[in-house]
Amino acid sequence: MSSDNANQNWVGKPLPRKEEDRLLRGRGRFADDIKMREMLYLRFVRSPYAHARLLSVDVSAAEALPGVICTLTGKEIEPLTQPFIEIGPDPAAKIRDFPLAVEKAHYQGEPVAAVVAESPAIADDAAELVQVEYEALEPVIDAEQALNDESILHQSAGTNKVWNGVFEYGDVEQALRDAAYVVNIKHLHFHRFSSTPLENNVVIAQWDPKDDRIYFSCNNSFPSFAIQFLSAHLNVHIDRIRVQTADIGGSFGIKITSYPQMAVCALASKKAGGRPIKWVETRSEHMTSSAHGNERTFRDTRVALDKDGVIIGISSRHIDDCGAYPRYEPLGCVIWSQVYPGVYRFKNARIDFTQAVTNKCPVGPNRGYSRMQHLWFLERVVDVCAHELGIPADEMRLRNYIRREEFPYTTPNGCVYDSGDYPKMLALAKDLIGWDEWKKKQDEGRNQGRWIGIGIGTTLDSGTNNFGQSQIINPHAPFSGNSQGANCKLDIYGEVVVAVGSCPQGQGHETTAAQVVADVLNISPDLITVRTGFDTERNVHTGFSGTYASQFAVSGLSAVHGAAQKLKAEMRRLAAFVLETNEDDIEFGTGAEGPELRAKTSGKSINYWGLANIVNVNSAVLVPEMHDVTLNCRYVWRAPFKVPDTQKKYGNLTMTYASQLHIAVVEVNRETYIPKILDYVAIDDCGTVINPPIVEGQVYGATAHGIGAALMENCVYDEVGNMLTSTFSDYLPITAVNMPKLKYGHISTPSPHSYSGAKGMGEGGAAPIHTISAALQDALFGEGIFIEQSFNNPDSLFRALVAKQGSQLGQLVRVERRV
């Protein structure tokens, strides 16, 4: 028998994913695979205008089409529902947010009506018959323009400003006075882009009239959050809403925001007499109206540096564009401050942060939600300062990085960076890419007139939100801390079954949870069943359960580990009773007939089936003192957060900090202006690795996402609010065809804040955007070009280099030299 002393330590082993056998054989269970008796199909009628008053919505022709069951309009559902909860305070709290436009359309693609029919084709035809009369209004496309309040989106709010706050720490003015250099950067802009998961949003809803309960099958990735909003909106007790998810084909945060569509499907089902309603999002719908990542402008940045190029202070003004409705916002107004100083050591900073609504698609969490924008800003600041002061890019970072011996590191706003070693990551990245050799090739290329640049980008992946940060935005917000639940049981036939409240979208939760439990019980992960998907009635969950914020390795697996430990304690106690020994004499392992518990002194043993049999069907043999043993153990892990100081905007806002450091070599073609990646390396540190191939896969995926965002993917609107990139003919997602070959490396600095030392990771898509911007800056600095945009395709580079339209260093960057 293998015993506790011979534990195999499954955590850290490169086991094949349990999910792969099911998914690769086409046996996955996705929301669109579900077919139900008497199912109906819903299609939305969407506004072609970005900003327009609805004069009339005539659904009579659609309702007359054979096969159409019912329709819904905003005016119809308004008296039946409450506006969605807004997380922010006034004026955001005054915004009347319904899932169908009531009086005005606020962005192109906003639903103004819904049609329900017997087939998708009939629903499509009927949607074409809905007649809507619009009165076009002046659109607001730019967040800075929106703050003028010349055309107000939401009259109930009275302003387009959603939130404003100043995050100030240290003594910025003194830092600016003491500085040897002050670098002034007039303008930077982080563009709007989205995620393009293989599977779009899908909702199946049934409002059952027999018990007045609502049943959802969907692919929402934060359903415990969604049902809190749906319950209040639909005036239904939360316990009467059941949400189930199964396999999800990617989310990247975007699918958190599908609850408005869930509401419409539920209301349509109720109107249709309780028949199930299915809505399957088209790709164009996804691009125009699901959610985009935050767009952010950075103005009037002043950077104070000492004589050695060490940053001692930063002052800047940031304007965030959240689209037509705040919805999950304005959490993005504070979440960026989880990484307030990035990976750098400056202590004095002032960020004046404002968010505004515009006539564009509402934003939502998008891989590195709100943090990637801020980290890009910081990386541009560091890179521009390095070029202006003539300090090599690698040396500039080494002078400013937080040092290994300073961890745990408390940031100016009270966040605690758990662990890290950025200089070591940089050294490994330089070694893997061949830094010195590339510097020689770069010099040779420049002598030949080639535009070759080498860029470094460092990013942080903060994991497991402290939702108390919402109180920095709104002191009355009823959120704080974080939690996750799990259940671990020994069922009647001796099988170990684990249930968690997560919604995996490719991260391998089924595999990693089995590895954690296997280590606790000293058995093979193959002997453990992990329930996949989320279920409000069948799986354990809390109000924070879902898959987001890089939290599963910390919160999810901590809950799994806690439940497994409780099960182990009960099993040990029961085995000691059955084998007539004390608990210290019991060891766990695998015998000739499978997993068992054995008394070390007598050699007697009992297998898992035997234990489960005693509790479940042979319970008369138990003494009263053992009646509390259930072998069905629930555990809720709660993060040790405190509520932040809302006045000072100070406190620990997240639990762990994984990091990635990338280096790219990029050449811009002098004739076509096409940037080409010549070499690329990515280094990650996510603490203790649960499963190395899964981690490496996450790094590859995040890198692809970021490279696509930097060079190919951009949500472009014209001056009247038409989205010009609503199809894959215009919005170009990265694929395996144009993904460069990636060199990969890894270091590990275990976190002291998780039971295993693991950190969340998976949102490192920010790093490539920083890295490519830095490489392009390095390539074109000699041409007097300043990379002020996060998106740089051949057209934008052409305009900067040839048309000379506003991207010149002298216009946008000014250095005050005081030494």
Concise account of the structure shown:
The protein is α+β, with helices and mostly antiparallel strands. Strands 3-5-1-12-9-10-11 form a seven-stranded mixed sheet, with helices on both faces. Strands 7-15-14-13-8-29 form a six-stranded mixed sheet. Strands 18-26-27-28 form a four-stranded mixed sheet, sandwiched between helices.
What does the model show?
The strands form seven sheets. This protein has a seven-stranded mixed sheet with strand order 3-5-1-12-9-10-11, sandwiched between helices. Strands 7-15-14-13-8-29 form a six-stranded mixed sheet. It starts with 18 loop residues before the first helix and ends with a strand. Helices cover 28% and strands 24% of the residues. α7 packs across α8 (259-271), α16 (509-521) packs parallel to α17 and α19 crosses α20. With 819 residues, it is of the alpha+beta class. The chain has 22 helices and 29 strands. α16 links the parallel β20 and β21. The protein is globular and about 85 Å long. The model has no long low-confidence stretch (mean pLDDT 95).
User: How much strand content do the residues show?
Assistant: 15-25%
Major sheet size, sense and barrel closure: 7 strands, mixed
User: Roughly how many Å apart are the termini?
Assistant: 73 Å
Mean pLDDT: 95
Number of strands: 29
> Which value, in Å, is the CA radius of gyration?
28 Å
Q: Residue ranges: pLDDT <50 for 5 or more in a row?
A: none
Structural class: alpha+beta
Number of helices: 22
Helix content: 25-40%
| Shape category | globular
Strand order of the main beta sheet, please? 3-5-1-12-9-10-11
